[in-house]
Every structure is written in C-alpha cells, then in structure tokens.
Amino acid sequence: MAHYKKYTVLLTCLLCIACSKSDFLDKKPNTNIVIPNSVADMIQLLDNQNIFRSNSASMGIMSGDEYYYASADVYHALATKTEKNCYIWSQDIYTGEIAIPDWNMPYQSIYYCNAVLEQWDKLEPEQKNSVPGQFVRGAALFFRGFSYYNLVSVFSPAYDESTKTTDLGVPIKESANINEIKQRATLGDTYSQVLSDLTSSIGYFSNTFPVQNRNRPSKAAAYALLARVCLSMRNYASAAKYADSSLSCYNKLIDYNTLDTTARYPLTIYNDELLLLNATAVYYGAVLTGSASLVNIDSSLISLFDSNDLRKPVFFRNETGAFIPKTVYAGSGSYPFTGLAVDEVYLVKAESDVRTGRLNEAIAAMNTLLTKRYKAGTFKSITQQPADQLLRSILLERRKELVWRGTRWTDLKRLNKEGANITLKRELDGKTFTLSPNDPRYVMPIPIDEIAISNIQQNIR
Question: Which part of the chain is the SusD-like N-terminal domain (predicted)?
C-alpha cells in the first residue's frame, strides 16, 4: 500500500531519532528498514510520541459543529484546501491535495506496531515473559487497535450491525511487508480487528496503573478505549462493561473547585484524570491550534454552561466576547485532546447504563462526575426520572464535558443513526451550508494518492 512504501525511509529516520542511544539499528539486507531487536529497543520505539501521540483524526474535528472561523477573511486565508472544504462539507475535500495526515499517520503507527510484533515473536521465551516484554506486546496491540479506530472513524460510515458485512472499513495490515497491497475490509471486519487488538492487549499489561508515565497504555486505558469503541458501535452493553472495568482499575476525578479557573492552563499535563496522553496532530493549523485570532467555540455550545458550571472558565477564555479553547488535558496549547480520561469513561458508563435499563447506576455515575464540576454547594443531584429524560440530560453533559476532545464527529454519526436528526449549518460569505443526518459526506474520501497506487475502492460522497 502507498502509505507503507512511504515509510521505508521514514522508519530508518525516525528510529534513529527515537533510539539514538541504542545499538539496535541493524539493517535487513537489500532494504532501508531497520528493526528493533531487543525489548528495550522496542519500548523506545513505542515511546516515540511523534509516532503514537500525534496520529488522531483531524478532519472530523474540522467538520464538526464545535467551532467557527472568526471571519470570512480568516477562512479564505487558510493554508490548505482540505481545511476549507471540511468546513463547508464539500464533496471533494482534497481538490488535488495529497499526503493526507488522517490516512498516513495512523498507517505509519500500524506499520511500526507490526514491525514490533513481528520482532517480538522472535524473542526468547524469557524475554517475552518478562514484565517489559509483556508490556511491549500489549502496547503494540493497543496502539494498532487505536490507529485502526482512528481510521474507521473518519473513512467509514457509522457502525450498523445490519450493514456491517456490506459497509466498507479500511485495509487491514497485520504484517510489516511494505509490498503487500490489501483491499478494504468490511466495516464489521475492521471493527473486529480493533476489538481483537484491544482485548488482546489487556492480558499483557500489569495491574498497576502507570501514574508516572501516562504516555504509555495500561489496562485502565485499554478498557477505556474499548468502552469508547463499543459506544461508537452502539453496543451499549459492552460499552458499560468496559467502562466499569476501566473505573475498577482507575477512577480518580479532579474537583474543579481546586483549580485556578483564571489561569491560562488550569489543567496540567499528566493531571489526575488522565489515562493516556494523546493529541490530534497539528497539521491543519487554524482549527487545531485554537488560535484566538482564528477559531472560536460555537456560541450555542457556550450557552449550555450556566454560571455555576466551572467547566466554562476551565475550558475556555473570553476574547472580546468570543470564546476560544484554553486546553483540556494536554496541559498547554489550545489544540484538541484526543486521548483517554476518566471523565469520558463515566459518561460512557452513564449513557450505556441508561440505554441498557440500569437507571440507578447511570444516575450515580453522573452525580459522581458533576459534583466535581460545579461550584461547591451549587450542584443539585440528579434524581430518579424517566429514562428518556435522563438520557437527554446525559447526552447534554457529554457534549459539554467532551468539547474539543475529538469525540463529537463519531457522536454525531452514531446519534443520527439513533434518530437524533441533527443537522449542521454554517454561514459563510452570505451562503448557508448544511450537512443533513446520515449524509454520505460524514464519510471522508480515501486520499487520491492512495487510490492511484493501491486501487482500493473509493467512498461515495
């Protein structure tokens, strides 16, 4: 596949950067691919944040309804056609642009994961069974599953059990063979790969949560990601199960009353709620840097926060009447955070519990979370209420809590499948642009350079 061939040289360069203190850079005959041979080398590669922290999807965020450009002039000055076209949901997003990060970066991560897994299989049993050796396999499986999920979230339709064998997923690569071309798997098979990788990873992680290194995956993080994936599949029973499993591993929440809400960065990197640090790669600068002069948070979203809700001053700052994101869990900058955190797990649990008839459990989860989010003494506990009313309340809190977290696009896709009937609208240059529920434009086109080399099937927009 095209992305694999591109990484023949990239692997050499990045491994040299990631592992400059190591001796493992041996070359395979007649190739430019270098292979990590020891457990320590594999860990160094998996710790490379340029590969595994910056590969989340961008186009869903750019196409979502959480932000708007400050002016038409800002829009017209955008650096790439992809940024412009995502904003107005054009049928042809790329208009000739190639090397699309949302496609290339996850496949780069998959390539490295496959290389590690192949070498891991060649280790001696004592190396495999060591604590570091077990972590290596778990981390490679975890990151591969996360990468496939990032791909399917933007390049495939929302999961539907009734059409999973005919809807298209993405090509599944389970080897580091750069010459192997794979066609697109079904959506069902792609999600099966994601679930298999993530569930398999859990058995290789220790029972200790890595408080001091939240760049690394763990049982709590793997369960949290499984909960996110199952929620996107509308498999609410499994989502609730995995959310409970994650919370049983780690469930610490921050009381926002303890934060300095006037600070530029109220939440620090590696804060207590963080399960796994990850952030969208800033390839499309205007949206993903959240610059005060370029991007504002949508006013209808801001209006959802009342005066006692501490999330408003923690998440946003007011710039002459327009709100822009501060930061969430990334600790600096204003770009979206797409990693895993405890608050999201509580919200997955609450929604899934309601949808599976466990109303008391859902209410308890919401009260546990929200009491930490409002000014002390102002939060009124949620009490027993009809399931549909409770679900609406939870979905509202989900939107408020997870703003600028990279989850909104998949939420829109799955909620419209549930009949939410959400229509997106933009105003630009006196024109109104709309995206109707379940529109084919919710699925991004496969990059044209990938089509040219691999001849895989294109999405219909």
Answer: 23-231
Contacts (Cβ under 8 Å, ≥6 apart) of 277: 53, 214, 215, 269, 270, 329, 330, 339
Residues in CB range of 73: below 8 A, 6 or more apart: none
Backbone angles phi, psi at 337, to 5 degrees: -100, 125
User: Encoding tokens for residue 205?
Assistant: 């992680």
- Structural domain boundaries enclosing 181: 2-206+439-454
What is the rounded CA–CA span in Å between residue 244 and residue 103?
A: 32
Query: Are both 13 and 74 inside the same structural domain?
Result: yes
Identify residue 205 by its one-letter amino acid code. F
Among 168, 149, 177, smallest CA distance to 446 is for 168
Q: How many whole angstroms separate alpha carbon 68 and alpha carbon 77?
A: 14
Tell me: do 46 and 180 sit in the same domain.
yes
In a domain, 227, yes or no: no
221 within a domain of the structure (yes/no) = no
Q: What is the pLDDT of residues 18-31, one digit of tens each?
A: 343 333 323 333 34
Question: Does residue 353 contact residue 321 with C-beta atoms inside 8 Å?
Answer: no
Tell me the CATH number at 77: 1.25.40.390
The number of distinct structural domains making up the chain is 2
The Cβ-side half-sphere exposure at 160, using a 13 Å CA radius, reads: 14
Residues 6+ apart with CB under 8 A from 434: 89, 423, 424, 425, 426
* Same-domain status, 409 and 343: yes
Digit-coded pLDDT (tens) for 167-220: 999 999 989 998 889 999 999 999 999 999 999 999 999 999 998 889 899 999
